[in-house]
Amino acid sequence: MSFTPGRDTARYTEAESTMMMERNYAQQLNGSNDEQSSATATSSAGTQMELQENAPVTTVIMLQPAGGDSRFSRRPIPVNTVDWVSTPRPQLNASSGTQFLAGVEQLEIQQIVDLSTLLGRTERGTQYRVKVPRAETLFLATESKWETQSRMFGWYKGYVLNVLDPCGETAFVIRKDPSLMHVSREKITVESTDLIGSVEQNFSLIGPSFTVYNASKEPLCNIYGPNICGCCMYKEAQFQVISSDGSHQVATLMHQWDHLTVDYILLLTFPIETDVKLKSLLLGASFLIEYLYFERIRRASRR
Q: For residue range 251-266, what is the model confidence (pLDDT) as tens digits?
């Protein structure tokens, strides 16, 4: 076998060129695949970023917005408290003090007595609890002490009773005008969001007499007590509330001994359908009668 250098050298050179071309093609192919993979990864990352950017923003609500009608500034009624006993009556969603008396046919007025009251060391005036008998408390009434501290030479200064509802808001303000004892007539006014009316004492020789007026000074009814001088009032007495025309009885007010509280109380009774404004005025009249005739009896009974 003969060896031809030129021809064999050319054959090997062609073979090496083919192998190099195949190697370059493979590298190009791999490089193209890497670029496609990189582009795919970049595209995927971009897509994820776009999805994150376009994703809806989720907000966690930590506080509920205030709802309801904000026209009234009265605070909500407490459900369970220590000092108040509540029942789920619809009138407890009241926007004025008079609405607390809707659906009520009896009111019991108790003076709040504690050790500081007995010792005369209290910083506040006399306090009363107004409640449905054997049921929930509707109001707490506090007398402004600075207006009632001195009673000299028969001059009786006026007083103010702030009547608070179960949420601590002022339901009524009962004001008593100053008066000269045995000369001028006693008078109180009852206010809620507006003036409700007044109660005035009448001159009478046969027993206590009062007239209840509305805000327009129109007489609504009259209150008559026992046929006895006010300075000699019975410990247990009954006052009749009669319509202005004298045709029928409107309500009854009784001062009586209560064995559960071991004290005297005022019990006001009226038909359940009585107008709430008239109920408010009769409540004010009860405080006036308590002040005029029974406050001294209460003090004497505790000695």
A: 999 999 998 888 899 9
CB burial of residue 229 (10 Å; 0-12, 13-18, 19+): exposed
Rounded to whole angstroms, the Cα distance separating 6 from 191 reads: 131
Q: Which tokens go with 227?
A: 């046929």
Pick the CATH number of 90-301 from 3.40.30, 1.10.12, 3.30.1360, 3.20.90: 3.20.90
Question: Cα dist. 60→57, 63, 66, 270 in Å?
Answer: 10, 9, 17, 54
Q: Which residue has the tokens 């107008």?
A: 275
Average pLDDT of the segment spanning 151-168: 73
Hey, where are the domains in the chain? 1-53, 90-301
pTM for the full model?
0.67
Structure tokens at 70: 């904000």
Q: Sheet with 179-180: list strands edge to edge.
A: 151-152, 155-156, 179-180
Nearest residue to 34 via CA among 26, 122, 248, 132: 26
Measure the CA–CA gap between 261 and 170, rounded to whole angstroms: 26
- Please write the tens of the pLDDT for every residue from 42-56: 555 555 545 455 555
Distance CA 74, CA 65 (A): 18
CA distances from 182 to 175, 201, 220, 229 (A): 20, 11, 25, 12
Report the distance separating Cα 112 and Cα 128, nearest Å. 5
